[in-house]
Design goal:
alpha/beta; Arc Repressor Mutant, subunit A; D-Maltodextrin-Binding Protein, domain 2; 5-stranded mixed sheet; 3-stranded antiparallel sheet; 10 helices; 14 strands
């Protein structure tokens, strides 16, 4: 069995939604397409497709194989292009993971320009706030917001953002303004579920000394926009990055608390599996993002706080 051809046939059947339509696209007979799929299932020892007279759907094993086969075929097409042409146009699917709020506000406006520049690349963007395993979950690239960077993957820095401790004017009028970090223990706080230090907030004074404070969080959320909305409604103190709350600080909707202290800054990183064998799709995306952010964070064009 020609496994690469079998992969191509299998992917085409799934994409076209049937054996006859796949055969038409591939220029062969439905019987030949059926034979390839049967041989592939026999070789792997598992059913890949659920077939009835009217419907065609992937089994769990079929879903896994489809994702990997599509990636393999994209890489083969790109490799052929590298050999056959001196002016390579990157092609194939590019799977990207990014945090929800950052992805909507700062990345979504960039995608149309990227697609116009690289029409051969098919973008598949998933917005998820949890830290994904880009290899196990099949991503080519992840945008990660991190204090520590990545020790297991290659990374390229796109920008930096401050973290700011703040609350609404209404909340501070009702509950008072903290004077020292320990005062935070007497305030209502809104916690971020994925914070590395949990409900222990670490503030750093001008001498560089850290002041960890265990706060009382009456609300937790895994999404920065949700924390922001609660703070704007006067529900308590939050710390969030300036890319999310910078406009609120400048407009006075939120007020910086304990401005003589700072929280650790965070980096916006493009994370990818390895610098070796980096595909053209990933390379042009990283270069595009670096150029788009230009080394100057748009959210800090006017300094917050």
């Amino acid at each position: 069995m020609d496994r690469l051809r079998a992969f191509e046939v299998f992917v085409t059947v799934v994409n076209r939604g049937g054996f006859a339509r796949a055969a038409e696209l591939l220029g062969t007979s439905p019987a030949n397409v059926t034979r390839y799929v049967h041989e592939l299932e026999a070789h792997l020892g598992t059913r890949l497709l659920n077939r009835t007279s009217r419907t065609l759907s992937l089994t769990e094993g079929g879903e896994t194989l489809y994702a990997r086969c599509k990636s393999i075929l994209d890489d083969v097409a790109e490799t052929e292009g590298l050999v056959s042409s001196a002016t390579v146009e990157p092609r194939g699917r590019l799977r990207i993971n990014a945090p929800v709020s950052f992805g909507i506000q700062y990345l979504a406006p960039l995608w149309p320009g990227f697609m116009r520049k690289y029409p051969g690349i098919e973008l598949d963007v998933a917005l998820i706030d949890r830290v994904v395993d880009i290899v196990d979950e099949g991503y080519d690239l992840a945008i990660r917001i991190s204090r520590a960077g990545s020790t297991s993957h290659a990374a390229r820095k796109l920008a930096t953002s401050q973290n700011i401790l703040c609350a609404s004017p209404d909340y501070l009028t009702r509950c008072g303004l903290p004077a020292v970090p320990a005062d935070l223990m007497d305030h209502r706080c809104i916690g971020y579920t994925y914070a590395a230090t949990g409900d222990e907030w670490e503030l750093i004074d001008r001498g560089g000394k850290a002041h960890p404070v265990k706060v009382d969080c009456h609300m937790h959320t895994n999404n920065g926009d949700t924390a922001r909305a609660a703070a704007l409604a006067g529900e308590g103190l939050i710390w969030q990055p300036t890319f999310l709350i910078g406009d609120d600080l400048r407009a006075g909707r939120l007020v910086r608390v304990l401005p003589e202290y700072r929280l650790p800054e965070i980096d916006i990183l493009a994370i990818y599996p390895s610098r070796r064998h980096l595909s053209a799709r990933v390379r042009v995306m990283i270069d595009f993002l670096v150029e788009a952010f230009g080394g100057v964070a748009p959210w800090d064009g006017a300094r917050a706080g």
